[in-house]
């Protein structure tokens, strides 16, 4: 993010802290709880959001060198992401062209060849079929026509994009809008290294997982012994970029930083930026690296999802790697993950139980929760549903 934009946003936050105000969505919205339980809606979401829409699956640091790979199993199509020998990011359908078995079963690693465990058909890092045992017994086939199926793949400014549809198109500028694309570039995500990862199978709808990142109103209650020690609650800066947004969670470090010259102000010191990338990604840059959260719906149960969390570090620029610093970064990452798992997602599971019961037909998004308004009307717009109306809170009776 440009420094002048950082200063502008930090002034906006400081003014709100001094005045005891927050971002104001202008009214409230009522969201039907059926969106978390309806199996027909869940099937439409899986088709529109996760099969026919490009997916941001990681950062460049997930593929640090030629031969690096990782797999994505949470989408309708199993994906093998690799870095070819020439450094190109490649995405492949992780299914052997012989009998359709998964070629790669590991989550990540590095290799020069991928061999299917069924019959040992072997492919290179670009997915080209380079060998099969007893080829003279099998029959005459054209190796060039039996490589792993390629998927559209784009690597830009450190973000890895894949389209699950082989005929799909990835237009990063259209996905992010030019304003957000420029801002993303300024974070230099391409310089980050993979640090650690975690995965949670959670008994809540994937949208409830996204909702937990949609406001800081809960910090003083749910996170009173954890995040609230380092963050102000119920204050933020918020901007939308088409279907995406940027929300700034306010660190208590701003209290000291505000007294320093503006030339020393840094947005990642005073806040934790949270970028929502439609439909299911939270990307949070820090001074030392970044957190990446991806929420994927369960293939058959609306009230269940998988969250994949990946942690990245900014490498040591001079000298050997400081292992004590890496250990500290890993510890901080795991603390962050445990708060999401044990506090946010525990509450989300509670919300899901209520939605499942049908006891409440709707819930309320407050004026101080603009991200929730934006999330759900964005989902609804993408599905062609009627948007949630903005209600004057003085007239929005129960």
From TrEMBL:
One of its GO terms (molecular function) is 2 iron, 2 sulfur cluster binding. This is Unannotated protein. It comes from freshwater metagenome. Residues 54-162 form the Rieske domain. Keywords: 2Fe-2S, Iron, Iron-sulfur, Metal-binding, NAD, Oxidoreductase. InterPro entries: ARHD_Rieske_2Fe_2S (IPR015881), Rieske_2Fe-2S (IPR017941), Rieske_2Fe-2S_sf (IPR036922), Ring_hydroxy_dOase_asu_C_dom (IPR015879), Rng_hydr_dOase-A (IPR001663). Its cofactor is Fe cation. Transmembrane segments: none annotated.
